[in-house]
Fold this protein.
Amino acid sequence: MVKIYIADVSKLNDEKTFSDLLSTVSKARQEKVNKLRFQKDKSLSLGAGVLLNLALKDMGCKFSDNDIVFSQNGKPYIENCKVKFNLSHSGTKVMCAVSEDDIGCDVEKVKDIDDKIAKRFFHNEEYDYILSQKSEEKQKDAFFRLWTLKESFLKITGLGMKLPLSDFSIIINDKDISIRQNLDKNDYRFFEIDLSDEYKYSVCFIGNNEVETKIVEL
Ligand SMILES: CC(C)(COP(=O)(O)OP(=O)(O)OC[C@H]1O[C@@H](n2cnc3c(N)ncnc32)[C@H](O)[C@@H]1OP(=O)(O)O)[C@@H](O)C(=O)NCCC(=O)NCCS
């Protein structure tokens, strides 16, 4: 089972709501939030921590600060817990995805694109897919679908930017999404969430899992 939690953190700009929620997250998350300079980043980091607590509670996983460990490339895990998670934040949105297997998720706010980025960093097939779109609006849509799908893959592997973006290719066939990659033999699947807003949300998971999405009011 893959569970996805999404929330808007705008309400955390309110001081009382912010401090009430801050007291509910782990000490490590509190420290992380406090180190950030801008309120918008503090709210995103806190929102991610709140979603993580909720998700792990739903999955029946108890954890304390000492249980959070990091892979070589910085991907967080919970020791002694069968549940894996991944977090993402952008604009005013936060996302948390959990599963019993490795998982990666990404949210990005759609903005204007510089097609040199896709040409330089994406796989040729992906660049061609973007150019094949008939309007500028559709190209932008394709770019951000690919961006979040690619990022969700980088994040499921835990390699982050250590894995060059042109080393693998995401193939979009309308709603059917697949990947060409040489990293391993895992059966990677992709799921996109369309909330009809100015964001793209993608999740990468392994195997034939049921996916459940929850929109959370903070
Ligand atoms: C660090 C990275 C994993 C994600 O960075 P990002 O897109 O800026 O940030 P997101 O908000 O999506 O994700 C951040 C979360 O990922 C998690 N994370 C950190 N390192 C990670 C790793 N190596 N693998 C998976 N997840 C990781 C953390 O939980 C972090 O949230 P937290 O700090 O609140 O705990 C990495 O892929 C990166 O640097 N990306 C740069 C973005 C880019 O250029 N993308 C190219 C477009 S395809």
In short: The mean pLDDT is 95.
